[in-house]
């Protein structure tokens, strides 16, 4: 203890005179509580990952993904849809400000700004707070993004005729011979634009496979129409009508 002008200086042995950098103890000093990262810990991680991978592969074998029929560019009645996690972008392209001549805005500009904003959010709001209420910019960006994705996905699901989509995309067990004269006649008379290139039906047209109708009944519908199909669609000759009707009637 040293005396000064009314002041006393007291030394504390608990405060080291020299500051040393903190170096964590080796894992060997904690027996049973920790282990080396390589190869012990990493090997366990790989084993757990392998178990999940094998389980996932078994799941895909037991429950194959619901594939649709082979893509047909001549089928103008088919409604293509992306996977569920891209439905919000699909819905965005339906709006006038992001479709037609503004497709670049809907496909590149708006998604680029949105995802760019999410990437820049940690740099814009660099506060030390951890509570969402204390970080308004980062929280606002995230809530706005989640709300936009949820709303657009919901709108896309609500506006899609899933029953018609499933019918058009179903894999038909009936073999379609596209080189047959009956198929070529149906294609020449624009039947495929409504009934599909695989004759599996469209949004407003039934399938032409396994109709259960006779050739005469099919010819009658082709000439006079039925339901949503107007009369006079078929423009071919009587001989072509007979060939096409017999071809469709035999699709069983």
TrEMBL record:
<feature type="binding site" description="covalent">
    <location>
        <position position="194"/>
    </location>
    <ligand>
        <name>heme c</name>
    </ligand>
</feature>
<dbReference type="InterPro" id="IPR036150">
    <property type="entry name" value="Cyt_b/b6_C_sf"/>
</dbReference>
<feature type="domain" description="Cytochrome b/b6 C-terminal region profile">
    <location>
        <begin position="27"/>
        <end position="154"/>
    </location>
</feature>
<dbReference type="GO" id="GO:0016491">
    <property type="term" value="F:oxidoreductase activity"/>
</dbReference>
<keyword id="KW-0813">Transport</keyword>
<dbReference type="InterPro" id="IPR009056">
    <property type="entry name" value="Cyt_c-like_dom"/>
</dbReference>
<dbReference type="GO" id="GO:0005506">
    <property type="term" value="F:iron ion binding"/>
</dbReference>
<keyword id="KW-0479">Metal-binding</keyword>
<dbReference type="GO" id="GO:0016020">
    <property type="term" value="C:membrane"/>
</dbReference>
<comment type="subunit">
    <text>The main subunits of the menaquinol:cytochrome c complex are a Rieske-type iron-sulfur protein (QcrA), a cytochrome b (QcrB) and a cytochrome c (QcrC).</text>
</comment>
<comment type="similarity">
    <text>Belongs to the cytochrome b family.</text>
</comment>
<dbReference type="InterPro" id="IPR027387">
    <property type="entry name" value="Cytb/b6-like_sf"/>
</dbReference>
<feature type="transmembrane region" description="Helical">
    <location>
        <begin position="136"/>
        <end position="154"/>
    </location>
</feature>
<feature type="transmembrane region" description="Helical">
    <location>
        <begin position="46"/>
        <end position="63"/>
    </location>
</feature>
<keyword id="KW-0812">Transmembrane</keyword>
<feature type="domain" description="Cytochrome c">
    <location>
        <begin position="177"/>
        <end position="252"/>
    </location>
</feature>
<dbReference type="InterPro" id="IPR051811">
    <property type="entry name" value="Cytochrome_c550/c551-like"/>
</dbReference>
<feature type="transmembrane region" description="Helical">
    <location>
        <begin position="102"/>
        <end position="124"/>
    </location>
</feature>
<comment type="function">
    <text>Component of the menaquinol:cytochrome c reductase complex.</text>
</comment>
<dbReference type="GO" id="GO:0020037">
    <property type="term" value="F:heme binding"/>
</dbReference>
<dbReference type="InterPro" id="IPR012049">
    <property type="entry name" value="MenaQ_cyt_c_Rdtase_cyt_b/c-su"/>
</dbReference>
<feature type="binding site" description="covalent">
    <location>
        <position position="191"/>
    </location>
    <ligand>
        <name>heme c</name>
    </ligand>
</feature>
<keyword id="KW-0249">Electron transport</keyword>
<dbReference type="Pfam" id="PF13442">
    <property type="entry name" value="Cytochrome_CBB3"/>
</dbReference>
<keyword id="KW-0349">Heme</keyword>
<dbReference type="InterPro" id="IPR005798">
    <property type="entry name" value="Cyt_b/b6_C"/>
</dbReference>
<dbReference type="InterPro" id="IPR036909">
    <property type="entry name" value="Cyt_c-like_dom_sf"/>
</dbReference>
<keyword id="KW-0472">Membrane</keyword>
<protein>
    <recommendedName>
        <fullName>Menaquinol:cytochrome c reductase cytochrome c subunit</fullName>
    </recommendedName>
</protein>
<dbReference type="GO" id="GO:0009055">
    <property type="term" value="F:electron transfer activity"/>
</dbReference>
<feature type="binding site" description="axial binding residue">
    <location>
        <position position="195"/>
    </location>
    <ligand>
        <name>heme c</name>
    </ligand>
</feature>
<keyword id="KW-1133">Transmembrane helix</keyword>
<keyword id="KW-0408">Iron</keyword>
<dbReference type="Pfam" id="PF00032">
    <property type="entry name" value="Cytochrom_B_C"/>
</dbReference>
């Amino acid at each position: 203890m040293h005396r000064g002008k009314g002041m006393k200086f007291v030394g504390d042995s608990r405060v080291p005179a020299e500051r040393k950098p903190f170096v964590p103890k080796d894992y060997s000093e904690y027996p049973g509580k920790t282990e080396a990262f390589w190869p012990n810990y990493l090997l366990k991680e790989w084993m757990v990952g392998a178990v999940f991978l094998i389980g996932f592969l078994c799941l895909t074998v037991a429950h194959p993904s619901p594939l649709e029929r082979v893509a047909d560019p001549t089928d103008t009645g088919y409604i293509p849809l992306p996977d569920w996690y891209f439905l919000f972008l699909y819905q965005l392209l339906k709006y006038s400000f992001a479709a037609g001549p503004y497709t670049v805005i809907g496909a590149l500009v708006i998604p680029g700004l949105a995802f760019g904003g999410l990437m820049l959010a940690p740099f814009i709001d660099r506060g030390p707070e951890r509570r969402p209420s204390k970080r308004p910019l980062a929280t606002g960006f995230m809530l706005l993004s989640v709300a936009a994705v949820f709303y657009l996905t919901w709108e896309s699901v609500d506006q899609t005729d899933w029953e018609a989509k499933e019918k058009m995309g179903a894999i038909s067990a009936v073999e379609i011979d596209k080189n047959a004269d009956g198929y070529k006649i149906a294609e020449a008379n624009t039947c495929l634009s409504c009934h599909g290139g695989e004759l599996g039906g469209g949004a407003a047209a039934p399938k032409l496979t396994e109709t259960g109708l006779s050739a005469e009944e099919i010819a009658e519908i082709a000439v006079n129409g039925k339901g949503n199909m107007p009369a006079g669609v078929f423009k071919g000759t009587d001989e072509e009508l007979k060939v096409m009707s017999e071809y469709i009637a035999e699709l069983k």
